[in-house]
């Protein structure tokens, strides 16, 4: 029986950790060198780009594409960090410089045409010496956000069921590259026939050995470039059977960095930083940020969110801003350093009672010091709430959830049952941090702007800067 060999290499959720990319490239070069190159396929499963890094921000993703080109990928799937933090035109421009590999996503379409853009395919059939491998890509399902950028994102289970049925008769091996998360990967393996392999991402899970559910293998390689995944299969043409001969994740610390990729990244980083260095504002005095209380920079951002969204009041957590600003020129590079999260403004409607709960929690250390990960947040801890249009009088020594004596919204007492239009951030709508802020109605997300764009606009407004010195939190005696 003439068995055929197929080796799949995979990376995922690198999130612009450029410091890991030279080791990834060297690992892939050495691992692929153990096989006939015609037997291998190299895949990135999405979130290679992250706009918290100056290399990515300053190049609008082109630095990532340059590294992907030199590393030798055959196929990439856009994750939510590609699809939701770049506009379609920015992605078109970035992927136009790719070196021959396919961009594959079955559930992301141009809203106007109902088709994938020219630079993206629903699936790809790769021929490896007569062994036909079908690859379907899927990205995370965030319809409210994708619609605002001009995309139509399709429900992934229905999409993969339809495409799997279409491709199964045409290929020997069917692979789904999933930027959905491990629970969805398991559900697809259980519910959808015909999938041989699911290579996963999005939830940053590491499967040092692949899982097997029914006839489907599930693999994933962690996050941030710490691992490269390898799946070595044997395919029996006479029976159509696919057997896993080896499945592992290689720690990239065990490989030296590629000097070629290191030199490329140095050049890309210098060029990107140069693009971000011109001044966008000039400060007459420093503006501070404190995680535990009133601060001018936090109040300035809260006011900006209020104005940007046309709200009655503004609310943002202090942890979104990582450092204070010095007097003098402010560049986009500096704004990226102090406010790296690719988080969007949004307008929500919240009852007064929901606002009050969040404000009480903002006085508690368990919330101020709470570590937060994911959902766009690139800071460390949640921090208190910075406010605009709100004045809170409180007694620090009183019991939790009973510290506040009064809350006034634009000079009027807070009404518990009234709905207020609140300018805030998308992170809160996911139930992260101050959970009561997710219980209202989301009116509108603002894309593609990030909160650092809001802050940049605010820093050019002298009146807003002066007003940011007015305290929102007032300590009173018992």
Give descriptors for this structure:
478 residues; alpha/beta; Purple Acid Phosphatase, chain A, domain 2; 5'-nucleotidase,  domain 2; 2 domains; six-stranded mixed sheet; 16 helices; 30% helix; 28% strand
Describe the fold and architecture.
The chain has 478 residues and is α/β, with parallel strands linked by helices. It folds into two domains: 4-272, 4-Layer Sandwich (Purple Acid Phosphatase, chain A, domain 2), CATH 3.60.21; 278-475, 5'-Nucleotidase, C-terminal domain (5'-nucleotidase,  domain 2), CATH 3.90.780.10. Strand 6 and strand 7 (131-138) form a beta hairpin.
Low-confidence stretches: none
Largest sheet: 6 strands, mixed
CATH homology group of the largest domain = Metallo-dependent phosphatases
Spatial strand sequence of the major β-sheet: 4-3-2-1-13-14
Oligomer: single chain
Calculate Rg over CA atoms. Answer: 25 Å
Helix content bin: 25-40%
The CATH level-2 architecture of the largest domain is identified as 4-Layer Sandwich
* Count of spatially separate domains: 2
The fraction of residues in strands falls at 25-35%
First-to-last CA distance:
86 Å
CATH class of the largest domain: Alpha Beta
> Could you give the count of β-strands?
25
CATH fold naming of the largest domain: Purple Acid Phosphatase, chain A, domain 2
Mean pLDDT: 97
Structural class: alpha/beta
The gross shape turns out to be: elongated
Tally the helices: what do you get?
Answer: 16
């Amino acid at each position: 029986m003439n068995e055929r060999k197929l080796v799949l290499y995979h990376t995922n959720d690198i999130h612009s950790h450029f410091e890991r990319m030279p080791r990834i490239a060297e690992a892939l070069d050495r691992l692929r060198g153990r096989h006939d190159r015609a037997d291998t396929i190299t895949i990135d499963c999405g979130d290679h780009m992250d706009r918290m890094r100056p290399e990515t921000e300053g190049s609008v993703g082109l630095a990532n594409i340059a590294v992907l080109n030199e590393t030798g990928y055959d196929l990439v799937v856009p994750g939510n960090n590609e699809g939701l933090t770049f506009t379609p035109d920015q992605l078109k421009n970035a992927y136009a410089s790719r070196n021959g590999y396919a961009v594959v996503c079955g559930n992301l379409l141009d809203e106007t045409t109902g088709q994938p853009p020219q630079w993206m395919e629903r699936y790809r059939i790769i021929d490896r010496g007569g062994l036909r491998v079908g690859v379907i890509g899927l990205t995370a399902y965030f319809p409210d956000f994708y619609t605002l950028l001009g995309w139509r994102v399709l429900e992934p289970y229905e999409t993969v069921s339809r495409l799997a049925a279409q491709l199964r008769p045409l290929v020997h091996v069917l692979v789904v590259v999933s930027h959905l998360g491990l629970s969805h990967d398991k559900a697809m393996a259980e519910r959808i026939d015909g999938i041989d392999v699911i290579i996963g991402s999005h939830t940053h899970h590491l499967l040092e050995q692949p899982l097997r559910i029914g006839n489907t293998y599930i693999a994933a390689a962690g996050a941030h470039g710490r691992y490269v995944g390898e799946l070595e299969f044997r395919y029996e043409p006479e029976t159509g059977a696919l057997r896993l001969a080896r499945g592992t994740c290689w720690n990239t610390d065990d490989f030296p960095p590629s000097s070629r990729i290191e030199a490329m990244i140095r050049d890309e980083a210098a060029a990107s930083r140069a693009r971000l260095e011109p001044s966008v504002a000039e400060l007459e005095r420093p503006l501070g940020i404190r995680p535990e209380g009133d601060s001018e920079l936090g109040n300035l951002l809260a006011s900006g969110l209020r104005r940007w969204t046309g709200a009655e009041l503004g609310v943002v957590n202090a942890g979104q801003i990582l450092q204070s600003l010095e007097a003098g020129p402010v560049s986009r590079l500096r704004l990226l350093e102090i406010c790296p999260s690719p988080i969007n403004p949004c307008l929500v409607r919240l009852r007064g009672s929901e606002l009050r709960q969040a404000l009480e929690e903002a006085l508690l250390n368990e919330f101020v010091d709470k570590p937060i990960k994911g959902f766009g947040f690139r800071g460390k801890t949640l921090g208190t709430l910075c406010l605009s249009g709100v004045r809170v009088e409180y007694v620090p020594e009183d019991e939790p959830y009973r510290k506040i004596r009064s809350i006034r919204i634009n000079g009027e007492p807070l009404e518990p049952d009234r709905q207020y239009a609140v300018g805030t951030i998308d992170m809160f709508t996911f139930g992260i941090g101050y959970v009561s802020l997710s219980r209202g109605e989301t009116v509108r997300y603002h894309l593609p702007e990030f909160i650092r764009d809001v802050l940049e606009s605010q820093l050019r407004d002298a009146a807003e800067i002066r007003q940011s010195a007015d305290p929102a939190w007032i300590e009173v005696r018992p």
